[in-house]
Design a protein that fits this description.
The chain has 467 residues and is α+β, with helices and mostly antiparallel strands. The protein is built from 15 helices and 17 strands. The protein has a six-stranded mixed sheet. A three-stranded antiparallel sheet has the order 1-3-12. The protein has a three-stranded antiparallel sheet with strand order 5-4-11, covered by helices on one side.
Length: 467
């Protein structure tokens, strides 16, 4: 049944971008995809779609190796890391969700919340504990404390810190300087880009070569790049370089104020290594890393192990549900199951309790009685004016009526009703009794009513509404 209710909590709009990543304006976290196949026939897909957004498909074609299953070559996949991987909600993301739930009185399906975390890699925290192979030591990880980047090689981590975080501590400026003086017999030229690098006998030449490799050709070694350098003895080329060398790139420590020392890149890197880098290096026994950072690791066995763990958890989110259940219990949120003891599990901030209609004002009693007699009633069937809207809001906020996020309302009981099978059926119109002179035998209206009920039931339980 189509409803007009819009859930209060828009989880799809929450930005879980960590603080360190918010410096890049283009970084954002994708939306969730809780629209999935489920054995719970009481789960209305339309409500989940409104609440959480469109589905994102976990596609193996995006994995290392490129192609889909049929084109996948076993040789392309390294042996996954032998490690125990525990899947948890990321702390800041969890805090954001808990605050949203505490401000809302709707009942949220626990499994939908679990999928919300799983489909946003930045909001999934992984605890990776490598296992030691027989007769060998366990794999050791080196991790960046600033962004969570992890690798097994310390040199790789140092390179990451210099390329990704030097700019966090130094401002880069371009200043004017006097044209280089002296007589130069030749000038080096990049054989790949045609850029003039300068005479090979000046002090800045080696630094210029390394900067070209870092910014333009990171996949080349220094020896490979130097093999592509050409020496040009044309006086016009030498003069062209001399004119272009009036600009110089310098590094200044952030927050140092005017008059601060202007450093070359090599000087800035040396200072960064000495004073800042030690505080950013970590060698943890158990690697705590977001799924987003783990999937970007250069350690391919770790990437594959994480992909396998996430894929298994997406099929059945037991670990995430277990972690969320404990966190929500700790923050005094309430749980219940719908329909029966094995029905879908929901969480809400409302303290649910049955409504005493015998001691309530007639308007509230009438509305509560109607909801009890018509489980899963949509808002359009309940709200006829502003007064009934106020009554409905009061019943929900005080925990006397369960408001589900798909826009329907049910009475509070041990197992509140949820799903299309509880939607109100139109009662069959009574069949008028025939006049005595027209019929000698009475007409039984029960088969007609049963047939109408079957037709109405088939309308309510269309595949688009079933979970």
């Amino acid at each position: 049944m189509e409803t007009e209710e819009k859930p209060t909590l828009d989880l799809g709009a929450i930005d879980f971008t960590p603080d360190w990543a918010k410096r890049d304006a283009g970084v954002s976290v994708g939306h969730v995809r809780p629209e999935r196949e489920s054995s719970d026939r009481g789960d209305a897909r339309d409500g989940a779609r409104k609440q959480f957004g469109d589905r994102k498909v976990f596609d193996r074609r995006q994995q290392p190796g490129g192609a889909g299953r049929r084109q996948f070559q076993p040789a392309e996949r390294p042996k996954p890391l032998d490690a125990e991987i525990k899947i948890l909600p990321e702390t800041k993301a969890l805090g954001t969700i808990i605050r949203k739930l505490q401000q809302d009185f709707h009942a949220y399906k626990l499994k939908d919340l679990a999928y919300f975390f799983l489909d946003n890699p930045g909001s999934v925290l992984l605890k990776v504990t490598p296992r030691a192979a027989e007769g060998a030591a366990a794999r050791v990880f080196h991790q960046c404390k600033a962004c969570g980047f992890a690798t097994t090689g310390e040199d790789e981590l140092v390179e990451h810190l210099l390329s990704a975080h030097l700019a966090d501590y130094y401002d880069v400026k371009e200043v004017d300087r006097e044209p280089p003086k002296g007589n130069f017999s030749c000038v080096a030229k990049c054989g790949l880009s045609g850029v003039l690098l300068g005479p090979p006998n000046i002090h800045e030449f080696n630094a210029t070569v390394r900067e070209m490799i870092r910014t333009r050709y990171p996949n080349m070694t220094e020896d490979q790049y130097r093999a592509r350098i050409e020496m040009v003895r044309d006086p016009e080329a030498i003069e062209e370089w001399r004119k272009s060398a009036v600009k110089k790139t310098v590094f200044v420590a952030k927050g140092s104020g005017e008059g601060a020392a202007e450093l070359t890149r090599e000087q800035a890197e040396a200072e960064f290594r000495r004073n800042i880098m030690p505080s950013l290096l970590d060698t943890p026994k158990n690697l705590m890393i977001t799924a987003e950072a783990a999937l970007k690791s250069p350690v391919k066995p770790l990437v594959w192990a994480v992909r396998d763990a996430l894929e298994a958890e997406r099929r059945a989110p037991y670990n995430m549900c277990f972690a969320l259940r404990g966190a929500f219990h700790h923050r005094k949120l309430k749980f219940f199951r719908a329909n029966d003891a094995r029905g879908p599990e929901f969480v809400t901030s409302a303290d649910l309790k049955e409504f005493d209609t015998a001691h309530a004002i007639p308007e509230l009693a009438k509305l509560a009685t109607y909801i009890a007699d018509h489980p899963c009633s949509p808002r359009v069937d309940l709200v006829t004016d502003k007064e009934t809207e106020k009554h409905l809001v009061w019943l929900v906020s005080t925990g006397h009526v369960v408001a589900f996020t798909n826009g329907v309302y049910s009475a509070v009981e041990k197992f509140p009703k949820y799903g299309p099978q509880w939607q109100k059926r139109k009662s069959a119109a009574p069949v008028p009794a025939p006049a005595p002179e027209e019929s000698a035998a009475p007409v039984d209206a029960a088969p007609v009513a049963q047939e109408e009920d079957k037709k109405e039931e088939s309308k309510d339980e269309t595949p688009a509404q079933l979970a």
